[in-house]
Each structure stands twice: as structure tokens, then as C-alpha cells.
Design brief:
Oligomer: single chain
Radius of gyration: 12 Å
Number of domains: 1
Number of helices: 3
Order of helices and strands: EEHHEHEEEEE
Strand order of the largest sheet: 2-1-8-7-6-3
CATH topology: Beta-Lactamase
Number of strands: 8
Length: 105
């Protein structure tokens, strides 16, 4: 399953090989970039900032986990296509959040 690890500053810290393939970028190119540069909320939620939505879904505060994973509809910034489902939750050791790209077509 493709995934990204994002820190509390909304910076990408790690990506899976599958995520590299989907984003058409290497981990080296992705690390230290803001998650908003590569992923966005789907059109119906676009008014919200993805970084804040990720922080809300994965962490309720520094080191405090949200109750279970949350789901968001996302899209890629670098290519057109339908939205996909992402599962977002806390990642240990934190504070960090994992974004699993669940339903990517």
C-alpha cells in the first residue's frame, strides 16, 4: 500500500516505493517538501488546507493521538484524475502522521 509519513510541520519525512511510483517522484525529491505541494483535498473540500486536515486527522495535539484512523478524499497536485480515499492516522514514534493512499486508480 502506498503511503507517506508527514511530521508535525507538515513536511514529508518518508514515502513508500508505491507512493514514489504514483507521485512520479523519488523519495529524495519528496522529503522535506510540504505535503500540500504533492497532495490536495478533493474538490468538494478544497477550501480546507490539506496540512491542517492531516494534522486534525492524525494528531489532536503534539503527541496526542486522534481516536483511530480518519479518512479523507484526496487528489494529486501533479496530475489530473479522480479523487481517491486516504486513511490518515498517528505514526509512532511521533509526532508524525501516516497517509495511506487506499483507493488510488
Amino acid at each position: 500500500m502506498p503511503f507517506l509519513i508527514v511530521d508535525d510541520w507538515r513536511r514529508i519525512r518518508a514515502v513508500s516505493k508505491e507512493a514514489e511510483r504514483l507521485l512520479a517522484l523519488t523519495e529524495r525529491e519528496l522529503v522535506d517538501r510540504n505535503v500540500n505541494e504533492v497532495l490536495a483535498l478533493a474538490a468538494e473540500e478544497e477550501a480546507r488546507d490539506l496540512g491542517f486536515a492531516v494534522a486534525e486527522a492524525g494528531m489532536t495535539g503534539v503527541g496526542v493521538r486522534a481516536e483511530g484512523p480518519q479518512h479523507l478524499a484526496l487528489r494529486f497536485r501533479n496530475r489530473p484524475g479522480p479523487p481517491f480515499l486516504a486513511r490518515i492516522g498517528a505514526c509512532e514514534p511521533g509526532p508524525a502522521t501516516v497517509i495511506a493512499l487506499v483507493d488510488v486508480t
